[in-house]
Amino acid sequence: MPRRPENLHERYHAHVYFDESTEDQARALCVDAWRECHVGLGRFHRRPVGPHPRWSCQLTFDADEFDRLIPWLDGHRGGLDVLVHPLTDDALEEHTSLAGWLGNEIPLSVDVFKPESEDS
User: The CATH number of 9-79 is which of 3.40.50.300, 3.30.70.1240, 2.30.30.40, 3.40.250.10?
Assistant: First the structure.
């Protein structure tokens, strides 16, 4: 079972994952979250970006908004999978051991956070 998001940090991102068949649903969810919960609304990426292996939209919020947003997202996501992670100084840890999920946990492309070897 995926780890649930916990409010233990100051700032967060939520990444709502979608594909061509769920794009309209994801757009509506993210815009409604922006309107209802007053969170930051990022771009809608129709391709994998960074560690995210699916299309996604990012919501930005802080600890004060967490306790309202996360239950709201969980109740309105309609089967969409959502990664929630804190913002720290360690992006790899944010997306692995500190990450929480609403829905299914999706394997991320965390190699983007690993430093290139000095030999390359």
Answer: 3.30.70.1240
